[in-house]
């Protein structure tokens, strides 16, 4: 995808949209805090009203290959593997998933045909989070993808500190893994039933928007915020665009290179209206029955990243993409350092086969931010 020179810059007004960690937070986390002992929770009717008023409209990228899907569709393409007994169960049902066992005893093995997902079956899995003393309720909309596709880097070649060449590279298999949970949290005031905050998950962290940032950061259809899922990676953003992250630069005079990870988002015909297609799976204070897949304590795919690339290999890819004119000015040793900083964004020892939503800190109101 072509990228204009302007698209790579982060303008001053965009800094206002960066996550603000509220007073009740530790560094890098937005955490729940009991504020008043007289606060009352929403009843089920009020919670469902909030879902129907503020359920986000999620747009997938028009070139998406790995679609949101339902738990049922995913499991129809999986085999449950018991590493301890060496037994395998093909196409397990959501209610048959084990609830206990040794550490890492089970995992779900996905067949290739299941990677694309079935968007016609998808829905938002909704959790209401409230603790005694909280004057608000976090309405969490969880999204599931059977597979996370490869990442994409944008590279600018620099000559005398000016962009001389520009292009994108697909860094497959970097970023690829089985199973992908993402989430949009809408915080609702329990008294007024108005939105007071939104958090968007973006892989292992996310963006937090306070009340005074929301109108500037989001567009709405009526009362519903519109959000966008990034191509292949499925991170959530409030706007269409390249959503550059992990910016790195080396050199510039006489030559250099700069790059960033692309998180491309755009509107398309692939749209999920979470006010209509949802399943309320958890609200502790209402004592709702929780599906067994929610509390399944094992991984939704095999452990360990699929990636086998190292910084030297990635450096060679980056150098080749920069073009022949720059190659003589870009020592692989310097690019290896650059690539070594980018690789951790894609490669994590436990990235392949995420745990269930209930095992995430955000499930209990702890929202990691950049």
From TrEMBL:
<dbReference type="InterPro" id="IPR053102">
    <property type="entry name" value="VPS_Associated"/>
</dbReference>
<dbReference type="Pfam" id="PF06101">
    <property type="entry name" value="Vps62"/>
</dbReference>
<protein>
    <submittedName>
        <fullName>Uncharacterized protein</fullName>
    </submittedName>
</protein>
<dbReference type="InterPro" id="IPR009291">
    <property type="entry name" value="Vps62"/>
</dbReference>
């Amino acid at each position: 995808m072509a990228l204009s020179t302007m698209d790579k810059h982060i303008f001053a007004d965009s800094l206002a949209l960066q996550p603000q960690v509220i007073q009740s937070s530790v560094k890098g986390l937005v955490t729940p805090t009991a504020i008043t002992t007289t606060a009352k929770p929403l009843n089920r009717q009020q919670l469902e009203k909030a879902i129907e008023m503020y359920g986000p409209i999620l747009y997938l990228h028009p070139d998406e290959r790995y679609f949101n899907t339902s738990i049922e569709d995913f499991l129809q393409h999986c085999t449950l593997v018991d590493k301890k007994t060496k037994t395998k169960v093909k196409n397990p049902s959501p209610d048959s998933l084990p609830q206990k066992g040794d550490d890492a005893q089970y995992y779900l093995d996905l067949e290739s045909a299941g990677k694309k997902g079935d968007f016609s079956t998808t829905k938002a899995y909704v959790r209401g989070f409230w603790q005694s003393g909280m004057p608000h309720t976090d309405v969490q909309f969880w999204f599931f993808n059977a597979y996370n596709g490869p990442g994409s880097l944008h590279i600018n070649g620099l000559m005398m500190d000016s962009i001389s060449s520009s292009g994108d590279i697909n860094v497959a298999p970097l970023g690829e893994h089985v199973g992908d949970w993402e989430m949009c949290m809408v915080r609702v005031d329990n008294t007024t039933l108005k939105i007071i905050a939104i958090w968007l998950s973006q892989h292992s962290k996310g963006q937090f928007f306070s009340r005074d940032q929301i109108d500037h950061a989001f567009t709405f259809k009526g009362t519903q915020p519109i959000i966008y899922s990034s191509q292949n990676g499925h991170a959530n953003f409030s706007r269409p665009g390249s959503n550059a992250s992990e910016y790195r630069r080396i050199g510039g005079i006489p030559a250099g290179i700069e790059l960033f990870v692309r998180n491309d988002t755009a509107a398309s015909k692939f749209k999920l209206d979470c006010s209509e297609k949802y399943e309320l799976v958890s609200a502790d204070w209402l004592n709702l029955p929780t599906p067994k897949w929610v509390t399944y304590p094992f991984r939704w795919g095999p452990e360990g990243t699929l990636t086998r690339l190292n910084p030297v290999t990635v450096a060679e890819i980056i150098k080749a993409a920069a073009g022949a004119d720059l190659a003589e000015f870009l020592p692989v040793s310097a690019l290896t350092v650059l690539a070594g900083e980018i690789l951790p964004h894609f490669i994590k020892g436990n990235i392949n086969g995420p745990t269930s939503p209930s095992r995430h800190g955000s499930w209990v109101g702890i929202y990691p931010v950049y």
